[in-house]
Design brief:
The protein is α/β, with parallel strands linked by helices. It has ten helices and 23 strands. Helices cover 24% and strands 26% of the residues. A hairpin with a 5-residue loop joins strand 19 and strand 20. Strands 13, 16, 17, 19, 20 and 22 form a six-stranded antiparallel sheet that branches. Strands 1, 2, 3, 7 and 10 form a five-stranded parallel sheet that branches. It has a five-stranded antiparallel sheet with strand order 14-15-23-18-21, with no helix packed on it.
């Protein structure tokens, strides 16, 4: 069943995306479910008869800031939701802040985990998956949320191995995005059981989006009530209140109407609970994953292709519409149009990546190592400078753009290099960065195109900048002086030695920090 669900998710949700948007494929047969509900047809599969209550859970993925409006609506009716948080996005534009999360928790909402970087866990290494899951939970706990027991898979994609990882990181449950009854899954059950038979593969009837109506939601609940009860977790992403809603958005008015309707069902035993209230279980200690071992640029010649696992939180689909080199991603923003091609004839290698910007009003685009916790991004040392390099051909001016990761997993823009001229022949672009900020733990870099034209790159490199001879001599001298000081102190404080009086004409010794 796990394999069938995973295959279903992959086959439906795998679509490319650009940060500027585009509507991905309909996810998890949601529109089919809406059509089914609107038709008034009765479900083909019913729960066994019994007196089980009907429980509805509002779950919100990613931590989009517009979800705060939905939380206020729920609170107005005395209801609460589960908010699955991408810790590396907290405080970034369009995402909740740490004060927002504390407000949710204070109001009674549940804070759950959704990884550090929002990567599909089966498509990254086991070590990276463990860092994504464990470090995300560890960060939430360090922020003061001590009841972090619920998890949601990015993109809804999971496997037996990732279920084990989630359990070992201390979570009591993990939610998918498929599995409950819909026209696309006529043999699926109406509701999740209480307790669930597979707590690390919690089922839902797709993801709520703009095609869902109040009738759609009401009919799902009524079907459970008539079928003997059970649990109905619902998945929400963006909440909007305008005419320009994104693909996975629902109107705030719909959330309000559905919450109000649910309150009216309490008299017949229908209730709203958070995932943690349904699953419960012990709160286990935080589990810290091993840090990534030091390494240089992964796949520097761009020869190996692979699914990066990156998921667009707006449409829950794959980040790239064309095969991209292992460990590399496109990063673009602003008002412009770009295309990517993997072309033959790199610099001393078979392949290179070509970026073409066909129109430009603002922003830029670049190829850079994946934003993750160390599988692809480069582990670095605070205070250290780094020598960056790549070979390029370009019809426009370009420059290095450099980003660094802070311990919580968020990536920040750091700095840019001087400009490099356009060239029709392969040229070597090299630059030494300033010392890395004190809270830097990872680094990603690449040449940037910020005007119409094309940019082809290959053969990337990074190394720690060697210390200068002067700095080395100075450091050795300081260490020697410190060593002599320690030796002198040891000799002076030998048994029976009495410290002599200090003469008035003695000069104080210079501080060991003076250079």
């Amino acid at each position: 069943m796990r394999q069938m669900v995973a295959h279903c998710v992959r086959s439906i949700t795998r679509r490319g995306w650009k940060l500027a948007g585009g509507y991905a494929a309909l996810t998890m047969a949601v529109s089919s479910l809406a059509a089914f509900s609107a038709s008034g047809a009765q479900p083909a599969v019913r729960l066994a008869s019994g007196d089980a209550p009907t429980v509805v859970s509002f779950t919100f993925d990613d931590g989009d800031v517009d979800q705060m409006a939905a939380a206020q609506v729920l609170h107005k009716y005395g209801l609460h939701g589960t908010f699955y948080i991408i810790t590396g996005a907290v405080g970034a534009p369009h995402y909740v802040t740490l004060p927002d999360l504390r407000t949710l928790a204070a109001e009674g909402d549940e804070i759950g985990g959704h990884t550090v970087s929002h990567l599909e866990l089966p498509h990254i290494t086991a070590a990276e998956a463990r860092r994504q899951v464990c470090d995300g939970r560890d960060t939430l706990i360090r922020w003061g949320f001590h009841h972090v027991i619920s998890f949601a898979y990015p993109g809804g994609v999971f496997s037996p191995a990732t279920e084990t990882t989630v359990r070992e990181c201390g979570f009591n449950s993990a939610r998918t995005v498929v599995g409950l009854h819909s026209p696309g899954c006529p043999k699926c059950t109406l509701a999740e059981t209480i307790p669930p038979k597979k707590p690390y593969a919690l089922r839902v009837p797709g993801q709520v989006d703009g095609t869902w109506t109040l009738t759609t939601l009401e009919n799902l609940v009524i079907g459970l009530e008539r079928g003997g009860g059970g649990w109905l977790p619902l998945v929400f992403h963006h909440i909007c209140d305008t005419d320009n809603c994104s693909s996975l958005s629902v109107r705030l008015s719909l959330v309000n109407a559905f919450a109000k309707w649910l309150v009216s069902r309490q008299s017949i035993g229908t209730v709203v609970k958070t995932v943690g209230q349904v699953i419960s279980g012990p709160v286990r200690p935080a589990v810290k994953a091993a840090e990534a071992a030091p390494h240089g640029v992964i796949n520097p010649w761009l020869n190996t292709l692979s699914d990066s696992g990156a998921v667009n939180p707006t449409v829950e689909a794959a980040s790239n519409s064309v095969p991209f080199p292992l460990c590399w991603m496109q990063a673009d923003y602003g008002q412009n149009s770009v295309t990517w091609r993997r072309i033959r004839g790199g610099h001393d290698s078979p392949w290179a990546m070509q970026l073409a910007m066909t129109s430009h009003r603002s922003g830029a685009a670049k190829l850079i190592p994946e934003f993750d916790t160390g599988q692809c991004s480069i582990p670095v040392v605070p205070g250290q400078s780094y020598d960056l390099g790549t070979w390029y051909k370009s019809t426009a001016t370009t420059q290095f753009s450099v980003y660094y990761r802070i311990p919580e997993g968020r990536w920040l823009y750091w700095t840019s290099s001087p400009f490099y001229r356009a060239t029709s022949r392969w040229a070597d672009a090299t630059w030494t960065t300033p010392p890395l900020p004190a809270n830097g733990s990872g680094l990603s870099f690449g040449l940037t195109l910020f005007s119409k034209g094309s940019l082809t790159t290959d053969d990337y490199s990074i190394r720690a900048t060697p210390l200068s001879v002067t700095r080395r001599i100075l450091d050795i001298t300081i260490l020697a002086l410190l060593g002599l000081g320690v030796l002198a102190a040891a000799l002076r404080w030998r048994p029976g030695w009495v410290k002599p009086e200090r003469r008035s004409d003695e000069r104080a010794a210079p501080s060991s920090s003076s250079r």
